Input
Amino acid sequence: MSDSDPGTAGRSQGDMAQLSAIELNVNDQVRLLEVDPRTSLLDALREHLRLSGTKKGCDHGQCGACTVLINGRRVNSCLTLAVMHEDDEIVTIEGLGDPDDLHPMQRAFVERDGFQCGYCTPGQICSAVGMLAEVEAGWPSHATADVTSSRIALTDEEIRERMSGNICRCAAYPNIVAAIRGIAVGGPE
Output
């Protein structure tokens, strides 16, 4: 074997893709990367940019642990390719706030104990921020009682439905709902 990259060992010449040079705007910083064009946004964030807040749970879009905000909308980063997001604003949990200046949703999760092991928490918080933007925009959900109304009543049922793409194995759901409801009705700012 030659002095080739150890990451390519065992791969045939046809299996090796050309790397794509991309610029990602992550947490208000433009980051330059060279990635295999098949690299998921999740892997670009975690493995290339070393932003470990976004978690890899199922890697199939079923658990929500990898949820980030792209142009203000919540997205499962395991289901989208990094090369697709060069002109987008990507916000991870690290971009929402930091320990000295928490985002209101982060603070609400802490105050209402909306986490236990904490693994799903970054995705839960990013999803909650995106979900409240959807409610503000008037987007109904399956649980919305009156889809013709310009104001959506953010009941516990409505919150649970809208957050159903985010799984918590520790079952902190009542506290997650309480944290989101607290922010939605003008809780901690």
